[in-house]
């Protein structure tokens, strides 16, 4: 919940998501369920009424595969 706005982030069954930092680029590797999960998370953040700065942390053993780099999805309306 941010500024009184509750958003629910759901996970597809069997979702597998791995984030790797290769220095000059970030690789997000996921199975179909993982890609649907990430798409859903982004759509949730894009909902009308979601305040600037609303975000979701994904980390190793908290949604991401072991050895993954941390990933933050954040809404920002600044230009």
How would you describe what is shown here?
With 79 residues, the chain is α+β, with helices and mostly antiparallel strands. It contains one helix and five strands, in the order ββαβββ. Strands 4-3-5 form a three-stranded mixed sheet, with helices on one face. A two-stranded antiparallel sheet has the order 1-2. Strand 1 and strand 2 form a beta hairpin. The chain is globular and about 35 Å long. 11% of the residues are buried. The mean pLDDT is 92.
How do the helices and strands line up, and which of them pair or pack?
Blueprint (H helix, E strand, L loop, with lengths): L16 E5 L4 E5 L1 H15 L8 E6 L2 E2 L6 E4 L5
Parallel strand pairs: 3-4
Antiparallel strand pairs: 1-2, 3-5
Order of helices and strands: EEHEEE
Assembly type of the chains comes to single chain
- The secondary structure category is alpha+beta
Uncertain residue segments: none
Main sheet attributes: strand count, strand direction, barrel closure: 3 strands, mixed
Task: Give the averaged pLDDT, no decimals.
Answer: 92
Termini separation comes to 24 Å
Structure summarized in a few sentences:
With 79 residues, this protein is an alpha+beta fold. The chain has one helix at residues 32-46; strands at residues 17-21, 26-30, 55-60, 63-64, 71-74.
Key terms for this structure?
single chain, alpha+beta, three-stranded mixed sheet, 1 helix
């Amino acid at each position: 919940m941010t500024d009184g706005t509750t958003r629910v982030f759901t996970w597809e069954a069997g979702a597998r998501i791995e984030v790797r930092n290769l220095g000059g680029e970030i690789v997000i590797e996921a199975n179909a369920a993982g890609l649907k999960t990430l798409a859903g998370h982004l759509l949730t953040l894009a909902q009308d009424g979601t305040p600037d700065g609303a975000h979701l942390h994904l980390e190793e053993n908290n949604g991401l595969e072991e050895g993954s780099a941390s990933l933050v999805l954040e809404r920002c309306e600044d230009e």
